[in-house]
Amino acid sequence: MGKLSELLQSADWKAEKHVPALEAPERVAKGSKFQVSAAVGKSIPHPNQTGHHIAWVELYFHPQGEKFPYQIGRAEFSASAASAQGPDTSTVYTQPEIAMTMQTDKPGTIYAVSYCTIHGLWQSARELQLA
Ligand code: FE2
């Protein structure tokens, strides 16, 4: 039986337009709020067409030493040029960029997952330390 994890693709976001460019502090104070952002197409823009766009991005946090990750949040990008006149007929687009605020008492790993309507699932990750 296949595993979903085998379908998660990764690469350097600077060279691959589907990978979320994940930004967060390297080190935060225990329990203090901090911002995490993820932008798809930051270096190479991804198409934003009705039939080919980034549909959503999710953020997860896996605290060091724990078994399961936590979902931090999910954003869906609903406007991709469709209108009552049909696909690719409007000038309204959602850009696949998000920013969320979180806090934790543990160090760990932050993950971002994006979904392209044609090219599937893409992930990126970065480590978070406590000050
Ligand atoms: Fe794509």
How far is the first residue's CA from the last residue's CA?
A: 42 Å
Put simply, the count of helices is 0
Unreliable residue stretches = none
Order of helices and strands: EEEEEEEE
* Strand percentage: 35-45%
Global shape: elongated
Description:
It is a single chain. This protein is mainly beta. The chain has no helices and 8 strands. The strands form 2 sheets. It has a 5-stranded mixed sheet, with no helix packed on it. Strand 4 and strand 5 form a beta hairpin. It is elongated, with a radius of gyration of 16 Å. The termini are far apart. Fe (ii) ion binds next to loops.
Short description:
The chain has 131 residues and is mostly beta strands. It has strands at residues 20-23, 27-28, 34-40, 54-63, 70-76, 97-102, 108-116, 120-130.
Write the SSE topology.
Blueprint: E1 20-23, E2 27-28, E3 34-40, E4 54-63, E5 70-76, E6 97-102, E7 108-116, E8 120-130
Parallel strand pairs: 2-8
Antiparallel strand pairs: 1-3, 3-6, 4-5, 4-7, 7-8
Bound molecules: fe (ii) ion.
Provide tags for this entry.
131 residues; mainly beta; 5-stranded mixed sheet; 3-stranded antiparallel sheet; binds fe (ii) ion
